[in-house]
Structures are given as C-alpha cells and as structure tokens.
Write a structure and sequence with these properties.
Structural class: mainly alpha
Helix content: 40-55%
Oligomer: single chain
Strand content: 5-15%
Number of domains: 2
Shape: globular
Largest sheet: 3 strands, antiparallel
Length: 579
C-alpha cells in the first residue's frame, strides 16, 4: 500500500469512528522524541544496538554479497528459488528488482542505522556536556562517528554512490532532496575516512565496556578504507595494479602498524577463533556482540539472526543448509610439499575422507572452515557428518559452513521455526588486519616483511591441528614460504591473495577482495565454467552455473534497488549498465 492510500485509510477511519479521544490519548510504553533526545548516552546505546539488528533478508555482515557472489560458496537451501539470493551468485540475471525485496531491505535498514547515529550525534551536541561531562561526551561522539562510518562503508561497498545523509540533512529534513550522486565515490570514501579519523583521534586505546569501539578499531578500519581506495574505485577499468595509489598504501602501513603494536594478536589455535567462548579474545578487534539467554537473562538472548539459515541440514533442529562451500574452495586448500597448488589446484576434483588418507594433503584450515561428510561436525565425533546432511545435494553438493556456528552440543539459542546462535560477527580481526599490512608491504616493495607476516599466519595454521582436528592430522601438510617465493612483487602478490582466501574463507570478504584487486570478472567467469561440472562421488551438482556470467563495467557493484529509485522519481541515478 503506498503512502497516499495509507493516509487515506487512516483519514477514513477517523471520519467514521471519531477522533477526539483517539488523538488525545497519550501512547503508553513509548518514549517521546524530546525526552529521548535529552538522554545522549541512551541514544548512543541505541546506535550501537543497530549493529546486530539485522535478519537473514538484510544481513549486515553481507554474507550473500561477499560470499555467494564469489567463488567461495553456493547459496544453498532447498533450491535456486529459495530466498531472493540466487541472482547474486549467478550475476547474469541481477537487476534492480532481482533480488528485489532483500536488497531493498538491506538499503533501508542500513539507512535506519545511519539515522540512529545522526540522532545520537545531535543529542550529544545539545545535551552531551551537561549530561556526561565534556570528556565523556567527546568519546561518545567519536564512538557514534565510528558507527556511522561503519554503516556507510557497507553502503558504499555495496552501491558505489549513495546519498550522504548526515546530522545536518536529518535536522533540515532534506533526505528526499539528497541525490546519490551529490558526491563522487572518492568523496564519499573521504567522508567515511573523516569520521574514522575523528574516532581515531578521540577514542581511548581501551574501553571499560566490552563491545565499544576504541582507537585500535578505528586504526584498523582506516587501514581497510585506505586499502580499498588504494587499488582504484572498484570498476575494473579503473582498478588493479596499474592504478595503485602509493600514498594510500602508505596510510595502510601507518594504521596497521598501530594495530600491530597494540595488545591484540594472533589467537594461538585457528579453530578457537570461531568458538563462542573465544569470541572476544585478542584476535577480535571489533565485533558485533551476540549472546544467549543465559548470558543476558532474556528469553532468546541477542542472537545472530543474520546467519540463521546457515546451519547444516539434519544436524541442527532448524538447519536450513545455506552458505555452502564450493568445490573450488575445497580444492584451493590442496597442498603440495606443504604449499598451495597455485596453477593446478582446480585441475581435478578432490576431497578428503576421514580415516582414508591418500597422497593429496590439505591445509589444516580446510577442516576448521568446511564441514565434510565422514568428518566430525565442528570437531565433535558424536555429530559426524554424512551425505544425508545436505538438503539438496543435486544442486549444492555436500559441504557445510562451519565458522559461523558453535559446536552442536551447545545447541541453538532459538530453534522453532528458525535457529539462531550466540556467535559474534567479526568486523575486524587481527589476522585480517595483518593481511592488509602484508598486502600494502608488497605493493610498496617490502617483500621480506610481508613474507614474515604471512609465514606467521601459516605457522599458526600449522599449530592448529592437535587441539581440534587430530583426526585429520595425517591428511594435513602446510609449509612456510622461502625467500624465493617472495622474490618479486608478482610472486608475492599471488601468495598474499591466496593466503587471504584460505585464512578468511567463508567470512564474507571474498568478492570484495576480488573486486579490490581488479580480477573479479576473470576469476568468476573461469569459476563458473569449471564449477558447473562439480561432482562428489556419483552425485553431480552446481549445474546452474551454466547460466552464470559476470560482466565487467557493470557487476562490480550491485544495482540500486528498484523501490529506492522510484520512491522519489528522478532523485537517484542507477549504477551504470543496470536497467
């Protein structure tokens, strides 16, 4: 029902039933805007609350747009029509109205999040010093600007050019006059950087309250912004090695050094990173906080609803089997003499079988990332996976995602008709930031230091066998890189990009990395051609990729959702080459 008819219906109801008492009744259980705005600390809390106020149709971790759209995984579920996300994984039929409602919901909810930040900033401006004191008010302002930049980074990451709605626009009620091309992509990124810089300059290194942004988180996010900007604008014609901005790369080194010298660090066992009991370890620089009812004495806790579809079929009470690792990803974990098989990793389909080792060895991170038939599910032998733990194997195969779920013995927070888990969503973890640093070191010529970082990460993977995946020890082999592996930028770049894929697999990052490096079209179209012939034993799957194609100069960014284009006709300009 459009706005006009909603108003008409309300007016009709008032005409028929009378209005005096209806209008004069004071709403109960609702705080007035004036009272709310006079409580700045509560307004800041409301802005924080939006971090995890998402749903599987609008997940703020962007798992459909960072993973399903890449070579790391398939959508999953009952079939290609289950949810609106199929268009995201094949690209060829992606339009402003397909995937329709899901993408529009994401746009809307991210702007709701921005709105909360803007209101909190106004509240802090008008009441912060009196209510909190000048020093605390300044810290809270820095936190909110961090949050606003976080939400805006996601908006620009998705849609290239978006309307910049800040507190001034909010106060002047000019949202519906604010065009999405009022600022260029580069100008929008600079605005985001400006907010993060304010946060960096005004936040303490540590915060007494867990979950709040701090100076180190701001430094890490600044590094991420500058790394994104350093490669180009994301469109392949303007992105890649030939477009690298040396000044931006230098900023990446500056801010990652702050992180490197902080109290954050590598968690000793890779598997522990993805267990809820370690969710706020030294690995976690900034994360969306989730909980179960035992932690916070609520009925359902603050569960992670963005990943509610992503539990293994038949393993959980309501495992809907989405976010399924691809065969290409599994093949990428192959090793030869302990090192990745760069040129030939995907020549042949392979997968390990528990208790039946052969000549093919694997990077240990495979067993922490991918649920495999015959192996314990998330390390627990009483919950061993079989081929029955796949909802639609003829379409999506038999693998399951592991990182975003706890161990099965811990159960769900809520399980009817949906499931949910108390798993934090990492926004920035230490290893991710160190990979950013290694990337910038390579592009600025410091190859030896980059190798040292990557070898530290590989050594941690090598050490991450005995505690959780001892059953796969005889199938694991991983080695460190020699000087010769980093004898040129070209060789080093390949190894860095490979390491990022293995380390960050299924963590919603892969497509955005391919786009940053300017290799999305070549990588994905090669993937589509090969992946449609996937097979596990006698079961063929992934045939739907025969219809997939990634078009450069178009698909690097997603289309602005159709409803947003037509709420105020003529206000927004669609991204290029989308109808």
């Amino acid at each position: 029902m459009n706005t006009f008819y909603k108003v008409l219906a309300i007016c009709s109801a008032v005409t028929v039933f009378g209005c005096n008492k209806f209008i004069d009744v004071q709403p109960k259980g609702v705080i007035s805007e004036g009272l709310a705005m006079s409580q700045p600390d509560e307004m800041v809390t409301a802005a924080y609350a939006k971090l995890g106020d998402d749903w599987y149709t609008y997940p703020f971790n962007l798992w459909p747009y960072g993973d399903l759209s890449s070579d790391d995984c398939y959508k999953g579920g009952s079939g290609t029509t289950d949810t609106d996300y199929h268009a995201v994984e094949v690209w060829s039929n992606l339009t402003s109205s397909t995937p329709g409602g899901h993408m529009d919901e994401l746009w809307y909810q991210l702007y709701c999040s921005v709105s909360r930040c803007n209101r909190a900033l106004i509240s802090l401006r008008d009441y912060g010093k009196d209510a909190l004191g000048e020093d605390t008010a300044k810290v809270r302002e820095a936190e909110v600007r961090f949050l606003r930049a976080h939400f805006y980074f996601k908006l620009v990451q998705m849609w290239y050019q978006v309307p910049w709605v800040d507190e001034e626009v909010y106060e002047n009620h000019t949202e519906e006059q604010t065009k999405n091309n009022a600022f260029s992509h580069d100008e929008l990124m600079e605005k985001i950087v400006s907010d993060f810089k304010f946060a960096y300059d005004n936040l303490p290194v540590t915060q007494a309250d867990g979950g709040r942004a701090n100076k180190i988180a701001a430094a890490a996010y600044l590094a991420k912004c500058y790394l994104t900007m350093a490669w180009g604008d994301g469109y392949e014609a303007n992105t890649g090695v030939s477009h690298i901005n040396a000044q931006h790369m230098q900023q990446v080194l500056t801010y990652t050094k702050v992180v490197e010298e902080s109290t954050y660090g590598y968690l000793e066992d890779y598997g522990d990173i993805f267990l809820p009991e370690y969710k706020n370890s030294k690995e976690s620089i900034f994360a969306v906080q989730h909980s179960n009812y035992e932690d916070d004495n609520t009925r359902f806790g603050r569960a992670n609803w963005s990943n509610m579809l992503n539990g293994c079929w038949g393993m959980w009470s309501c495992g809907w089997d989405f976010h399924k690792p691809s065969q290409n990803l599994v093949n990428a974990f192959k090793t030869q003499d302990g090192l990745p098989m760069f040129e030939h990793f995907n020549d042949e389909i392979a997968f390990p079988v528990n208790g039946d080792p052969n000549a093919q060895k694997w990077d240990p991170r495979l067993f922490h990332t991918v649920g495999l038939p015959t192996f314990p599910y998330k390390y627990e032998s009483e919950y061993t996976m079989t081929t029955d733990n796949s909802r639609n194997p003829s379409t999506y195969g038999y693998y399951a995602s592991l990182k975003e779920v706890p161990q099965r013995s811990n159960g769900e927070v809520y399980d009817n008709p949906w499931q949910a888990f108390p798993m934090n969503d990492y926004v920035l973890r230490y290893t991710d930031v160190m990979l950013m640093r290694a990337e910038a070191l390579i592009e600025t010529g410091s190859l030896s230091e980059a190798r040292s970082i990557i070898n530290d990460i590989r050594q941690r993977a090598k050490n991450s066998v005995g505690k959780h995946i001892g059953y796969a020890a005889n199938q694991c082999e991983i080695a460190l890189y020699s000087d010769s592996d980093f004898s040129s930028k070209e060789k080093a770049r390949v190894r860095l990009q490979w390491e990022r894929r293995l380390e960050m697999a299924m963590e919603y990052d892969r497509f955005f990395s391919l786009r940053r490096w300017g290799i999305a079209s070549t990588t994905l179209n090669k993937f589509f051609e090969k992946e449609q012939n996937s097979q596990y034993g006698d079961q063929a799957y992934a045939g739907y990729y025969k219809d997939a194609h990634f078009t450069a100069a178009k698909n690097e960014y997603f289309p602005i959702p159709y409803p947003q284009m037509y709420y105020v006709p003529g206000l927004y300009t669609q991204n290029k080459n989308y109808n």
